[in-house]
Amino acid sequence: MSAQLDTLPRYRRMAIADLDVVESVERMVYTHPWTRGNFTDSLAAGYHCHVMECDNRIVGYCVMMIAVDEAHLLNLSIAAPLQRRGLGSELLGFGIKQARDCGARSIYLEVRASNIAALALYKRYGFAEIGVRRAYYPVHTGRENAVTMEMKL
What we know:
Elements: E1 10-13, H1 19-29, H2 36-44, E2 48-54, E3 57-67, E4 70-78, H3 87-101, E5 106-112, H4 116-124, E6 128-139, E7 142-152
Parallel strand pairs: 4-5
Antiparallel strand pairs: 1-2, 2-3, 3-4, 5-7, 6-7
């Protein structure tokens, strides 16, 4: 995957046919990635699953559950070689718009306490820390806390 992008991002619904690429990105980005089953279940449940494409290739994706007036951002990922170029911010903005368009009044998420870049991104967009889930995420040497965040829309 080249680190250069020639086109602006575009979004489309994630499809089963995308899962080989999505799963590959997921494994490159996380030490404890979602499984194909996690993505398949999210699609089957009707969650808002979108891929971000640049130059006709998938460079990121997000999975959001929206019910009544709440949205839960479950996964937001950018391919490792393309991180720190504003694509995560662009994708988060897209997700926030989706939540608003569906009538959500708040978005919730959990993020690893050690993920300083993600915490900073979410705070820039107006997410506030509302709690901590102790030992929420697996790590190689045990478990790590998650910071729970909320953004009012």
